[in-house]
Structures are given as structure tokens and as C-alpha cells.
């Protein structure tokens, strides 16, 4: 998907002389020794480009002394309303990034002193995990027995948290869950089916109407705003199905954002219901151009609220092939967001969401 940020690659040789695949953290079907084999040669490919236009690289070896000792990772935690929400937190640099991300989802673990107000970790205390990334993009998360002691009411939240945390890495497409080396076809307590593996296509914080026409709807993930116990806003992904009859998918997404979240959701959005698209959105080279009426403008000049831009960018870049958006009003550009960004030029999804700066 267009919004993933980090590619995990490994080049290491197992004691059995099996060469690990370069496309994965641990590669192949063989489970590597995490402390010896993998640490010898792991490359982290971060978003962002060098001056020559190629992806920048940060290597995990000791020769690169300039590398920071910490890095931001997206951890999907549970907020006070029960939503699974990304929080970008500073974690120590490690060669075992996927395993570390899951370890920071464990209640009572290293994440406890970092939790934003109102948020909680998702995995039961004492849970341990190993991970193995296969060549087809499936990552296997093998949990200890403590995993099965979760609150049954949290089962789908836990599954979504694990899946969305691991699929932040560019070459992770799907998650398979094991417990003590045994593949699970269903989640342990409420029997949620997981035998085919789980991906972002399964959704997050899923909301559906009581009556649903599967023939004329398609799944999408929209971003609305929540608020922490201390009043800090953050963005919440909500998966739903939208009616596409008579309209393109981008128009349907924008109209759903304008309509806003359900009234009992405890979520909000900063878009007036008078805002409307004047034309069908146009996509070219990954940039989606949205032409609105003047209702999208603030009271001072040609300025658009940053939170409106944020929700549009986050929601639309969930769509395959959309890398950025640009906004015009009545076909004219030269629009600024309230943070000074020129939003008539392509605005890309940020590297990290809910950092307190976005």
C-alpha cells in the first residue's frame, strides 16, 4: 500500500548454510536465531530520498556511528473509546524491528512509560513472541501461552493491532498467528477466523450500516478525529463500506468524510456539510486533484484548515495508487493550509501519524 514507511531486509546465513532471502526480515520458511544470525547484516530502508533520488538507507551495523539510537515506529494501541489507533513512539534502534514492535504492544512491558493519556497496550502481560517473514510477504507471529489470556472483548482489537502494526513495514503484506509453534485457524477465545492470514484489507475499527448491499459497495478506510483524555486530537482509522453506484471511489470517500462519523462514535471531523466537489477527482502520476467549492475555505483568504487536509490525505492515500493529493477551489490553485503548506501542490502522507506534530 502506498502509505507504508519502512522496508525490512536481511542478508544472513543460518548455521545450516541456508541463505536467508533478501526480501524479508528473516526470510524463507526457516526460523532464524534472532540473537546471532539476523543481527549480522540487516538494512533498514526508511522513507525519504537522498540527493540522487534513491531511497535513503540506514544500516544496522556498528560502522555507521551517525545513525540515531532511536527511531519512530507506529504502534496500534487501544484508546479510551475502544478504537485501535496508531501512535508514533520513539523506540530504540534494533535489527529486530518487527519483533520489537510487537513487544511494545505488551501490557506491563516497555511501552508502559510511553503510553499517551487514555491509551492502553493490547497484548496480555508476559506475552513473548518470535517472528518470521516469508518470501510471499506473510509474517508469522508466534506467541507464548500468555497470549491466550486476553479479554475476549478485545479479540478483534488485538488482531487489528497486530496486523496494522506489522504491516507498517513495506514488505509485510499479511500476518499469520501461531501460539507455541502451532498455527491458529481461529483466534483462541471468540474464534475469529484467521486461517487465511490477516491483512489491512480486513479493516480496522470496522463500522457497517445495518443494511448492506455488497454488490454496489466497496470497503474503504476513512480517518476521523478523536481526542485524548487531556484534550490532544489524533486521527482514528475507521473501515466501512461505501456505495459506489453512480460515482467514482474517490468522490465516494470525500462525500463520506463530509457526511462525518456516526453520531454515537465519539469521533468528529472539521469539514462543513456545505463543502462539495465540483468535478470528479483526477489522478495523474499518483497525485489526486480535488476541486472543491468555496465552502472548504476558512474565513481568512484562500486558506484550508490543516485538519481538513490531514483527513483527506490520510483517507485517500489508503487507496492503491494514490501517493498525494492537491486541492483547488473553482479550478484555481494557490491555496494554503493553516500550517503554511501549499495544498495546491501535491501533499503526501506523512511518514508517521499521531506524533503530536501532525
From TrEMBL:
Read off the Pfam families from this record.
Answer: Germane
Segments of skewed composition (Acidic residues)? 45-61
Region annotation Disordered: residue ranges? 45-66, 338-358
Bias type Polar residues, positions: 339-358
Q: Which InterPro entries match?
A: GerMN (IPR019606)
The superkingdom of the source organism is Bacteria
Cross-referenced PROSITE patterns? PROKAR_LIPOPROTEIN
Please report the stretch or stretches of sequence annotated as the GerMN domain.
Answer: 98-188, 250-338
User: Where is the secretion signal located?
Assistant: 1-21
Transmembrane region(s): none
Q: Which key words are in the record?
A: Signal
Q: What is this protein's name?
A: Spore germination protein GerM
Q: Which organism is this entry from? A: Sutcliffiella rhizosphaerae
Q: Which gene encodes it?
A: gerM
